[in-house]
Specification:
The protein has eight helices and three strands, in the order H-H-H-H-H-H-H-E-E-H-E. With 291 residues, it is mainly alpha-helical. It folds into two domains: 3-203, Up-down Bundle (Alpha-lytic protease prodomain-like); 209-283, Cation efflux protein, cytoplasmic domain (Alpha-Beta Plaits). It starts with a helix and ends in an 8-residue tail after the last strand.
Length: 291
């Protein structure tokens, strides 16, 4: 799957769908006089902003490496994900604040059939958009697209909140406020997950044990007793990955022979994993501080 094209398509579809849903919700809010539906409409429109951010991030991250950015521009995806997490945090805070205000003032809302139909439509469409974004995010490993999927999910949840409030508003005046607080906590959790993943990639991650084991197996043609791999570090630039690690070789090997072995291992890693590696050679009797 082409990462850039998939990201563009997800963003464009999201913007179009959100604008249509905004029109429907806003119309239903005006017709029924529902403040909740009108507010939910503006929440939906805010999703278009996150989708536009995704489109811009895909464009920026696809730029080729240059003299100032030799490892490419892939980390724009993480930066975009942080922007989206920030937006989700603001929305979560607004939900929590409004829920508290409504509960404090004993406010309730009256809805009609139009509100029910529009809200159900919104839930189905937004969850479909979320599933589509999550699918693209898994296939392309684009964290900003995943973040956009969470933004769709939160809008679907806010519509569920409105729907539950519609169905039970007459029996429980406080249900809208309580559910609003629950949804806001879910939004805060989504914000945390998105920001955590993006920040971890920006700060640098430890290579997975699975990757290290695969690398060890890929160089089994060398005598495992005479070559030792350790001190792994990986630098993820999204479209480009750099791996650094140390190898211990026999003390009697020449510099030329050690360089040949390191170069061959670097070539194997690039051919099998698409990762550019840099290897530091040490004598087998050397005790590193990290050993």
């Amino acid at each position: 799957m082409d990462k850039q094209r998939a990201g563009y398509l997800e963003g464009v579809i999201s913007v179009i769908a959100n604008c249509i849903l905004f029109g429907l919700k806003f119309w239903a809010g005006v017709v029924t006089g529902s403040i909740a539906l009108t507010a939910d409409a503006w929440h939906t429109l805010s999703d278009s902003l996150s989708s536009i951010i995704v489109i811009v991030a895909v464009k920026l991250s696809s730029k080729k490496p240059d003299t100032e950015h030799p490892f490419g521009h892939g980390r724009w995806e993480q930066i975009a994900a942080l922007f989206i997490a920030f937006l989700l945090g603001i929305i979560a805070f607004d939900f929590l604040k409004d829920s508290y205000t409504h509960f404090k003032n004993h406010e309730s809302t009256e809805f009609g059939i139009i509100a029910i139909l529009v809200t159900i439509t919104s839930i189905l469409v937004k969850e479909a958009l979320a599933q589509y974004a999550f699918y693209i995010g898994r296939k392309t490993e684009n964290v900003s697209v995943k973040a956009d999927g969470w933004h769709h999910r939160t809008d679907a949840l806010s519509s569920v909140l409105v729907l539950v409030g519609i169905l039970f508003a007459n029996q429980f005046w406080w249900i809208d406020s309580v559910l609003g607080a629950i949804i806001s906590l879910m939004l805060f959790y989504a914000t945390y997950q998105i920001a955590k993943e993006a920040i971890n990639k920006l700060l640098g991650e430890k290579p997975s044990s699975e990757l290290i084991e695969k690398i060890r197996k890929s160089i089994q043609k060398y005598d495992s007793e005479n070559i030792q791999l350790h001190h792994f570090h990986i630098h993820n630039y999204v479209g480009h990955q750099e791996l650094t690690f140390h190898i211990k070789l026999r003390n009697d090997l020449s510099i030329e022979e050690g360089h040949r072995i390191a170069t061959e291992i670097e070539n194997i890693i690039y051919e099998e994993f698409g990762i550019v590696s840099t290897i530091h050679v040490e004598p087998i009797t050397f005790n590193h501080n990290s050993d």
